Amino acid sequence: MQKMSLDALAREHLDRARQSSAQRSAETVYGGHEHMLRQTIIALVAGTTLADHENPGEATAHVLSGRVRLGVGTDSWEGRDGDLIVIPPARHNLQAIEDSVVLLTVAKST
User: How many domains does the chain have?
Assistant: First the structure.
């Protein structure tokens, strides 16, 4: 069995994001490309956006801290600490309204 503290990882990656020229930091904490399920912690400094990208399968974003906006075309949804956003199966982007950390969970389509 493996155990990790998402709170500690969130703090660590937010510190890394603040020091990075890209203003973001990410790490896959479970799974990966060879697995059906992948969980990735993503930290973004306020104002940073992950540009439009495809959804590789069923996905959710659990906001661990901060406030984010998920955009799909002309629609958008905001999430804050503790919110779980179901990511639609379409091109989308993610913007940090405040310094934020999300846990992205993806179950790849077969």
Answer: 1
